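Shipment paperwork, digital attachment
Item: protein structure file
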Amino acid sequence: MLRTDLHPNAPNGDVNDPAKLKTNDRVKMATEVSERALAHEADTEFLVRKSMNTGYQVLSLLTPPAYTAFVIARRGRSAWSLNRTLRATWVGGLTGSAAFGGGAYLRYANTSYETTKEKRIASAYDTNRIRREDHSTIGAILMAVITPALFWNRASSINLILGGAGLGSTAGVITHYFRNLSGDVPPKVEPPPVGHDNEHNL
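Attachment content:
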């Protein structure tokens, strides 16, 4: 005779039925696997967004000087124009965002659940990265408004707005690193343990 306390979570009528006990165990295991898959998907999405932000910042920073140097070297200074530079800036930023985001997805979608979770938690509590993103966002918003006001007749409106946002993002990133170099480093925050119950509420 089977003991009734072997499976305390089983329904009252199923405690002596091994087949039903195994079925309940399978259901519980399938539920846990499904929850882990959803959590891994959420972690991957979070990290992809972060990587897209980084890609936008990096290419928005590198594109204007690279494009300017290329044009001057190939065609001379007279071939340079603000409109084309602004267009190259926002196209470069979007390209960087797509490239970094795609690379991050390929990486984390094929990484273990535990590793992805650890990376997400570390990223969520990375105050240095958070401040850089804040400065980048603020700069992008401000310059998306200021650039059209200053150069309305020198470039198309779409290039002024989007290109201005890219330049503003660059200004924000440079400001962040300048503050770091001057000693104004954001305080570090220790992330909670990986198994923290509220880790997906960040």
